[in-house]
Amino acid sequence: MNWDRFASLDRRYIFLLMALVIIIPILVPMNITMGTMRVTQDLFDTVDAIDRTKQALMISSDYTPQTEAENHPMIIALLRHAFARRIPVLINALYVEGAPLLDQALKQVTAEFNARATSHADSIIYGRDAVYLGWQPPPIVPILSMGQSIRGIYPVDYYGTRTDSLALTQWTHNYDQVGIVVAITSGTSPLWYVMYAQPKYGVKVGGGCTAVNAPDFYPYCETGQLSGIMAGMKGAAEYEALVAEKFDLEDRRKATEAMASQSAAHVLMMVLIVIGNIAFFATRGRKS
Amino acid sequence: MREKLPLALLIIMGLFGLAYRFMPHPGAEAFNSYLRDTLLRIISAFALILGLGNLLLRHAHRIQKREQDWVHSWVLILGFGLTAIIGLLGGVAGEGSLPTKVGNFSFNITDIYNGLLIPLGASMFSLLAFYMASAAYRSFRAKTWLAAALLLSAFIVMLGQVPLGYQISPAIPQVTQWIMEVPNTAAKRGIELGITLGVLATFLKILAGIERSWLGSGR
Amino acid sequence: MTRTAVVLCLGLLGLLIAGASPGGALMPPAGVIARDTPGDGGGSITVRWQPVVDAASYRIEAAADTAAFAAVGEVGADATEFEHEGVRDGEAHRFRVVAIDAAGNEAVSVPSAPVASRPQWFAIDLIGVAIAIIGLVAVVLWYIRRARRGEHLFIRRIAGLEAVDEAVGRATEMGRPVLYIPGTGYMSDIGTVASMNLLGEIAKKTAEYNTPIVVPVRDPVVYTVAREVVKGAYIAAGRPDAYDTGSVYFVVEQALAYAAAVSGTMVREKPATNFLMGPFHAESLILAETGAATGAIQIAGTDMVTQLPFFVVACDYTLMGEELYAASAYLAREPLMLGALKGQDMGKLVFMVILVLGTILSLLTGRDFTKILSTTGY
Prior knowledge:
The complex is a heterotrimer. By secondary structure, chain A is an alpha/beta fold. Helices cover 54% and strands 11% of the residues of chain A. Chain A has helices at 3-7, 11-27, 38-48, 68-84, 99-116, 140-145, 150-153, 167-171, 189-201, 214-223, 232-247, 254-257, 259-287; strands at residues 56-61, 89-93, 130-135, 178-184, 205-209, 229-231. Chain A is elongated. In chain A, 51% of the residues are buried. Among the domains of chain B are: 1-67; 82-139, no CATH class. Chain B has helices at residues 4-20, 26-64, 70-90, 109-139, 145-160, 163-168, 171-181, 183-207; strands at residues 101-102, 105-106. Chain B is extended. Chain C is an alpha/beta fold. Among the domains of chain C are: 27-121, Immunoglobulin-like; 164-315, HUPs (Rossmann fold, 3-Layer(aba) Sandwich). Chain C is built from eleven helices and 13 strands. In chain C, a hairpin with a 7-residue loop joins strand 1 (33-36) and strand 2. The model of chain C is unreliable at 14-22 (pLDDT under 50). Classes of the chains: A alpha/beta, B mainly alpha, C alpha/beta. Chains in contact: A-B, A-C, B-C. At the B-C interface, helix 2, helix 4 and helix 8 of B face helix 2, helix 5, helix 6, helix 7 and helix 8 of C.
């Protein structure tokens, strides 16, 4: 075999192979079974344990459209979990770029649940069950200020409605009424909450992050500073599965659908590394 | 004066920033809030104006000099201008004074965001998968025993991070979790400790005026 | 006589039963002390008491001035302390603790002396952290003093920084520019500050060698600083005429759009040398791989741990973590900067010793020594 060709393989062949292994599993759906990582289970359990009569779930987001594929399913899964358990939800955006995505997520999951609702009490009502607080720059401002007063830093919500007129924000004054803040990020915003809000106000913090940033958060899960994380798209898929299994939901699970492609891509990467090493050692032996 | 005033400001603000962490008094919090909520926002706003001005001037210069690919500079300037006008006058969802719909074709800011920004951003991020594959093929070499051990753990983690690993063996995700929680955490903590001390030392160097490059003094 | 004997016996039996029942009457909590919670921003009073046998829970009651006592909290049998928050500073409160047993019997303590909450200027819980910082500052200042006295301070070789001269020289020989990417962070990131310091040193070299330098910037504030840094470097090198005002420019704030623009610059202008120094995020591999594809020599440095593997794979040299902060001192070789670098290293050695000793002590004694340097004092 001519290993020289492999040693100097044009990268476009690699790009083509990668494209094929990602596209084919999307076109040909495959059944994938997966386990649940402990960090995802911990986050699920913490959210599930919120006393909905006394506390709300806060979803804080600083992800951008670039990481929508990984992060957006996390918010969808969290909202489904909260709405299925009737846990009130407060949402805020730390960066303006991701703000419309949160609006889309809230509207999508609200529509899913209201399509199944049989009464007004069953329905998800904006203002009572969920409030989208909007965006306030810079990020450190709302993180610290919400410890004193959520309405103080968000006098109006994302849609321009006064927060003192909304039922949910009338009793969620500050972090004392927040069961956990789950920060969905393409950066490190869960750590901002851990560094600034948690020491001062004692609020629990969880995270949802891209796979490449997940190693940053594992040490904090070990110390208990983070109650759990969804690590990458697989973490989102695991959370989707946990929610669907517990509440018997049949809504579309985008992260789960992508798992076959992700598996194939990882396998291709390993095969390429092996081939690259074989080619390297084969040609090196000949050259020396 | 050109150097003394920024240095004096730096020393005062730097020392306050350090001391604030140890001061729970509401007075300190109030001053910090003022710095954070007011001054920082003003500085960011003016810096944005400066940056945008530079961006537009640079591309106007490229067009004027007919530099390589100058047509793309027109695309940037026109896109910048159109988006700004549509955003300012057309409203977020087309409720503004400028009409943002022609027949069934809508082009308000929300449509630009959903139709352009999201797909473009996602496409750029998706390049990472391809670049990672080509970088892995080109550079991941088991030249030493340590490198081979690293590759082996990389394979285990790659398998553990996808459902395929669980299907091959439930032990793979558990080993992956152990690698992430123990060796990865240990290495990360070591690097973070060094970084944190480096941050403190850099802060001290700047505070003491030893590092002055940021002043533009050339020293 | 018989009836009297029966009554006496019954009475004795009753006494025996009462004496034999476990615990007897529930005792009220003793030693109730209330004081202003130390090291906080006010609005909080801490109440302590001694535990009571047979108590199943405690109810804490507070009264302001002459007002009646009202319940403010309830804790379990194991608790001997309660922090009452939300009090107005300067307003005196008295506290009493009510022990409650499993049968619901209550025993009320003697009220505490009146106490008012006040905000403190120093968080006493963080004293360990404050001492550690003062210690590190002292070590750094000591080494700076040694450097000022002219002592030679050994700094180990850092391959990436040794290659800077060669890299800039390569660009000069090939007649192609040097591309400097100062990271995609903000000016508040120390990595960006370190990058600006390094940019100054590299701009001086490009000024001396008359090599063009291109600095695309992602953040407007960083752009203003980078512009001043490069200009100052050219002035310091005695080449103000060679400074090109268009060499430093703002691109765009979105990280991946920035990566796309800079990748385009790499492909079009084909710089001979790429410096990628500062905080990076997901775009790091796009930049590094594109640079590798153009054949440039690449020296990278970042304090973002998760991006280090990408740079190690795609670049010729990588500065890891604190090596980035050391870069400007390493290149400038100024005694004061080297002294600070040495002090930082010594500080790290001290912390390592504390960590090892603390771990050994924790294992031997079973007590947790990590709280000494805890920052969760609030």
